[in-house]
Amino acid sequence: MKVLIPTPLRTYTGAHCVAGSGTTLAEVLADLEARFPGIRFRMIDEQDRMRPHVRFFINGRAVHDVAVRLDDTDELAIVQALSGG
Amino acid sequence: MPGDTATSTTLVPLILVATRKGAWLVHGDAGRSRWRLDGPHFLGHIVSHLMLDPRDGRTLLAAAKTGHLGPTVFRSMDLGATWREAARPPAFAKSADGKGRAVDHTFWLTPGHPSEPGCWYAGTSPQGLFRSEDGGDTWVPFSSINDDPDYLRWMGTVQDGTPDGPKLHSILVDPRDPAHLYFGMSGGGVHESRDAGKTFAPLLNGLEVVEGFDVADPTFHDPHCLRLSPADPDRLYQQNHCGIYRLDRPGDTWVRIGRTMPPEVGDIGFPMVVHPRDPDRAWVFPMDGQTVWPRTSPDGKPAVYGTRDAGATWQRLDAGLPRAQAWWTVKRQAMSADALDPVGLYFGTTSGELWMSADEGGSWTCVARHLPEIYAVEVAQRAVEAGG
């Protein structure tokens, strides 16, 4: 599936868009981690919770659980969500 | 002459500056009069601490995060020319119910004992203690602190901590014994281990807490900065939320040496620095801790105060600093000393200025202005070829 990468994470991927695979968001993030070591911990904490200012959208719909299911035709957008100085 | 390979070297300071928006390496010359800024490194990252490994003189660790992303540790083996991210940054053990704590940021880095090359300690927010045995690439939590019911109670909640989050800091390693450790928690008190961290115990006798709270409960203790005298490791100094203290081991009772500070200045502040060769000499940077805790220099007139007699008396050291209307302060890890003679003192301000004194506080020079808010200043000595 298509995974859109926000600017803060492009030092890991080197690209704004990468291919991901998995049947759940957790599996897709594990797939990204395998190819881009360190990227998952910047988004997901050690208790498997999404970090406060990172958001995930599947086909434009916000999701809040890494167990959510998706398939190869879905588009996953990872978004930085923070304003202020 | 042919075959003569002898070269002379000289020691030069390297100031390591961690800021809210990145890190800088500031290279000095032997006279400590010319400075060259190398940076920013990690522009936009919140860098809480940047530390050089004194055991090899070239390995740097940087504790960093961004506004969006989780915390990590970056490592450089070539004095900042290139960086690599730690394979396993400090992180708490995963709880069975998923409700466990998560590291918000690594706040403090301490190189381990000289007999343990590659060993480092890290303190985090919320309070956690971690150790690496591979030069900072992978980090393991201390369950004796991070998962202990008493310690978890003493750490309190996020609301009990500092405005930027509760922190474990000031990790000290006894230069005579790698198993003898100290650390401080804001809040949560001062603690000591004599078995390499298998167990820790509070070290609070003599310390005061905010009026009305139980002095026997570590929860209410807020050490801001602990220092151990390099010349006499049995002597510790402390800048606390409630005063300046000294502890001489094997005693276990802190003495409030800040009572001799001028009353109009008080003895509240964040950082404290100890002379590398004289255990009776130390420096603090007082701040306004009255009423609503402005956390500015008292009366807008910044000054370092130094003692030459272990806290019996203090001298104001402000030559060269702004005389008025300067409302910055210095955070707990943003003041440091080199080991040259005379000792150089360095501090970074919340307004992004880097100051130094090449004469032990006698006069101050601004090395850099307009940096982001400075969180940490460390200084190392590097041996370079004379004239280089």
UniProtKB/TrEMBL annotation, chain A:
TM spans (from-to): none
InterPro entries (alphabetical): Beta-grasp_dom_sf, Mopterin_synth/thiamin_S_b, Sulfur_Carrier/Prot_Modifier, ThiS/MoaD-like
Pfam families (UniProt xref): ThiS
Domain of life: Bacteria
Protein name: Molybdopterin synthase sulfur carrier subunit
Species of origin: Thauera humireducens
UniProtKB/TrEMBL annotation, chain B:
BP GO terms, sorted: xyloglucan metabolic process
Recorded GO MF terms: hydrolase activity
Superkingdom, natural source: Bacteria
Keyword annotations from UniProtKB, A to Z: Hydrolase
Signal peptide residues on this chain, from the entry's feature table: none
InterPro entries for this protein: WD40/YVTN_repeat-like_dom_sf (IPR015943), Xyloglucanase_GH74 (IPR052025)
Protein name as catalogued: Glycosyl hydrolase
Organism: Thauera humireducens
